[in-house]
Write a structure and sequence with these properties.
With about 350 residues, the protein is α/β, with parallel strands linked by helices. Helices cover about 40% and strands about 15% of the residues. Strand 5, helix 6 and strand 6 form a beta-alpha-beta unit.
């Protein structure tokens, strides 16, 4: 096989969004993909079993907090694109253990930025320097909570509510600082809630799916009125690829699915999909139980992705209702993937019940 046309270094590739991006890059480009993952609790190597032997796929078990290890990867692989997805990402866990989020999301990002700068200032060739991009994947949660009207844009002021969103806000600021001070060619992405295959079952959609399949109570925070904009993970991965291909260095792009739904609507959709695919004696909607809301729970998020659509020609391909049914179907068809998690490091328990 001829040498790959480019090398992508992707952190967090054994996670939910990262594994989707790995699959797309291997299937639809000629790039060599170097997956850098510490394999913490939310990573699942099973998500990449089908590409483990791919000739353009490399796995390196390195933590972004390992500064020397990250430096060594740049020297070894000479990437021309970095996708930084490695992060602690669950709000409830950030309530229970906030300092872990600071270490990974803030310090880990700083380590990766430092390594990228040193690489470009040192061993990287002129051609690599010209095309190098650092794509930093963040969240709409950095903007805080919206009222009943309006949407987040690239110029919305930051107002994070949780340790998770505060740590991601801090990492965004670091990335922009490296761009302005050191001229690192970065692109920042702020995305809405993702859904789709291979999502760790502590998150709403897979958790409700596996609990509903077992006819267990379906805990919904508060009255279920909190609103999110839902983005299919494959649409998100395509957006990230477009940012790497054509995004303006120093720019920010908001990525959304144009699919605002409140949590109760989402759980109703999961229940109805389960009833259609695996009928039971009673409708799954009867399993819904309202539980005490989590501390600092933002009420509404919504994304205006018009800049991304206008400047880079991207648009979401998935309709939420269809995408949700397909997602539920994936979990039903891939029980060994999530069963191994529920029998090991996470048993579906609630996290983040109290603020520290």
């Amino acid at each position: 096989m001829s040498a790959p046309s480019s090398t992508v270094l992707l952190t967090g590739g054994a996670g939910f969004i990262g594994s989707e991006l790995v699959h797309q890059l291997l299937a639809e480009t000629e790039a060599r993909v170097v997956n850098v993952d510490a394999l913490t609790y939310a990573a699942n190597p099973m998500s990449l079993d089908d590409v483990a032997d791919h000739p353009r796929y490399v796995f390196e078990q390195v933590d972004v907090n390992d500064r020397e290890g990250i430096d060594a990867l740049f020297a070894k692989y000479a990437p021309d694109t970095v996708y930084h997805l490695a992060a602690e990402s669950h709000v409830d866990r950030s309530i229970d253990a906030p300092l872990v989020f600071v270490e990974t999301n803030v310090v880990g990002t700083a380590n990766l930025l430092h390594a990228s700068r040193a690489y470009l200032d040192g061993a990287a060739g002129a051609a690599v320097k010209d095309r190098f991009r650092f794509i930093h994947i963040s969240t709409d949660e950095v903007f805080g909570s919206l009222g009943p009207e309006g949407k987040f844009t690239e110029t919305t002021p930051y107002d994070p509510s949780s340790p998770y969103s505060a740590s991601k806000a801090a990492s965004d600021h670091l990335v922009r600082a490296w761009a302005r001070t050191f001229k690192l060619p970065v692109v920042v992405s702020n995305c809405s809630n993702n859904y789709g295959p291979r999502q760790f079952p502590e998150k709403l959609i897979p958790l409700m799916t596996v609990k509903g399949l077992a006819h267990e109570p379906l805990p919904v925070y508060g009255d279920g009125s909190n609103v999110r904009d839902w983005l299919h993970v494959s649409d998100h991965a395509r957006a990230l690829r477009r940012m790497a291909e054509a995004g303006e260095p120093g720019s920010t792009y908001c990525v959304g699915g144009n699919a605002e739904r409140n949590n109760l609507q989402v759980v109703h959709g999961i229940c109805d999909a389960l009833d259609a695919l695996r009928p039971g004696d009673t409708p799954r909607r009867e399993l819904i139980t309202f539980v005490t809301d989590r501390p600092g729970h933002d009420h509404r998020y919504a994304i205006d992705a018009s800049k991304l659509e206008r400047d880079l020609g991207w648009a979401p391909r998935h309709n939420f209702e269809t995408g949700l049914k397909e997602t539920v179907g994936w979990y039903l068809d891939n029980e060994p993937w999530w069963r191994a998690i529920l029998e090991g490091r996470y048993q579906g328990e609630r996290l983040g019940v109290r603020a520290e």
